[in-house]
Specification:
binds ligand PBG; two-stranded antiparallel ribbon; 10-stranded mixed β-sheet; alpha/beta; 39% helix; 11 helices
């Protein structure tokens, strides 16, 4: 039974009708806002490739957290730029490290805000790699110990969720075991299960000063040609104890989000990354696209593909547009 009995346009005539039958919803409550924290006081340094995003001292990060929360955004995810870097990433698991201080301040000052700590070593190593390096190899098992120490120290500082983004094998199990051994069995793990070796992270690396000094991340991050492997990674992480899994980047990998949503029964997150933000901001600045509409359409698409939550630099802006 086709036309003229079928007229799909009937349900598109008015906004209220369209909203009644919309299959996907998007609200501020689905969003996570990333913050880059650095030492100092009253520091708010704009990231040149990410207009509107800043490297923030802890006091300024608290102000951002407050603002995000008041707009209805439930969570922030923290990245640290430590005062010093070394081969062992000491700043990552220092009880008074930059992320630990920021977590404590945000938990103290902002009511009802979830604070997620990104667990990786690349911001803290002098060579910029995500793990312990020997020659030009990134060693897997010795890195696990440092990642576990990092997660425990972040959780001790008050982090509500830890989110390993390093892509070492076995890190979820190692982190779960270490948390449980430290009376932190209530702290969930959001695993970056399918993190691709992506050029879309360029602006982030400027922001976090984490560009590797030699080589790249292709020996641990995923090959952009693979999707079945993403499902395998997610299943392994869930077996190891991941409470949520993430796909990253988002828009270039919507098929991966979709597959992961079908394959596992835990919440699926997507990271709408720095390069995705930068492209959109740049085109909008030239007047080539309508920033607000492209922003919301992008976020809707990520939700439609199956993401339950979205990490995005647009969190505050989108929350403003979406109301509460
Ligand atoms: C690693 C990490 C990266 C991002 C989040 N966590 C960068 C990388 O793997 O080099 C990228 C996020 C973005 O581009 O917005 N700590």
């Amino acid at each position: 039974m086709g036309f003229p009995a079928q007229r799909p346009r009937r349900l598109r005539r008015t906004e209220i009708l369209r909203s009644l039958v919309r299959e996907t919803d998007l609200s501020a409550g689905d969003l996570v806002y990333p913050l880059f924290v650095r030492p100092g006081k009253r520091v708010r340094q704009e990231i040149s490739s990410m207009p509107g995003q800043y490297n923030l001292s802890v006091d300024e990060a608290v102000a951002e957290g407050q603002q995000a929360r008041s707009l209805g955004v439930p969570a922030v995810i923290l990245f640290g730029i430590p005062p010093a870097k070394d081969a062992k990433a000491s700043g990552a698991y220092d009880a008074h490290g930059i992320v630990q201080e920021a977590v404590a301040a945000l938990k103290k000052e902002v009511r009802d805000l979830l604070v997620i700590a990104d667990v990786c070593l690349c911001e803290y190593t002098d060579h910029g790699h995500c793990g312990v390096v020997q020659g030009d190899e990134i060693l897997n098992d010795p890195t696990l110990e440092l990642l576990a120490k990092t997660a425990v120290s972040q959780a001790r500082a008050g982090a509500d969720i830890v989110a390993p983004s390093d892509m070492m094998d076995g890190r979820v199990a190692a982190i779960r075991k270490a948390l449980d051994g430290s009376n932190l069995e209530q702290v969930p793990i959001l695993s970056y299960a399918a993190k691709y070796a992506s050029a879309f992270y360029g602006p982030f690396r400027e922001a976090a000063q984490s560009t590797p000094k030699f080589g790249d991340r292709r020996s641990h991050q995923m090959d952009p040609g693979n999707a079945r492997e993403a499902v395998k990674e997610a299943q392994l992480d869930v077996e190891e104890g991941a409470d949520m899994v993430m796909v990253k980047p988002a828009l270039p990998y919507l098929d991966v989000i979709y597959r992961m949503r079908q394959a596992v029964n835990v919440p699926v997150a997507a990271y709408h990354v720095s390069g995705e933000y930068a492209m959109l901001e740049a085109a909008a600045k030239h007047g080539w696209i309508d920033r607000d509409r492209v922003m919301l359409e992008s976020l809707f698409s990520i939700r439609r593909a199956g993401a339950d939550l979205i990490v995005t630099y647009f969190a505050k802006e989108a929350a403003r547009l979406l109301g509460r």
